[in-house]
Amino acid sequence: MEVDDLYRRLDAHYSVEDWWPAESPWEIMVGAILVQQTNWESVAGVLEALRSRGLLDVDAIDELPQEELEAILRPTGFFRQKAKNIKAMASYLRAHHRSDPMHLLCQDTEAARRELLSLPGIGNETADVILLFAGGKPCFIAAAYVSRVLGRTGMLDSGDYQEVKGLMESCLEPDPAKYARFYALLVQHARTTCRSRPKCDACVLSSECAFSSGRGTAGSRPLRRTSARR
Ligand code: SF4
Asked: What is the residue range of 10's domain?
């Protein structure tokens, strides 16, 4: 199966409208930290709590005492570390980008990525979430769910973040809207069907899937690498 075919099949099957609802780039940056190691439901509640207190604002977060932020973030887990990382992000934006996330994100993609990766709590995946959803940059998010689907279907034998990201970006035109939708489709598929224990009988990919046809395993160790189109 080629990458385009994977997209078409998932897009015909799942609805992923309003995948990452947010009113500002800063809200997306905060959400990208909060969603680490938890589910979106707990993040949505915390974002609403921040909104209702007027705290979805760079300066307001920078000025808020750490303990107060921790108390609000508690439902998302790892709340002390997340509070520290969000405050570090706010402090950095205030010091270097006039408290404006877009001042950072409007730079050349690699320059923006380097700055994001220099901040605590922001690794490759979180940086790509911010670059894509907040910055509108064509950066594919190679999350574990993406590796799982590519692995089981037999499209790419790798759990390496950069390799998975490289394959997707080499097979797709650099279209941020399509990257965002494709990522959402893959996550939706992995959460609902290609789960830890996959529901292959109900899967829209089963006719082309290495695992379903008995040629693959339930892990992420697939069979072959697809050829890139460019
Ligand atoms: S057929 Fe099974 S293993 Fe393959 S993508 Fe679908 S759910 Fe996953």
From this structure: 3-15+141-208
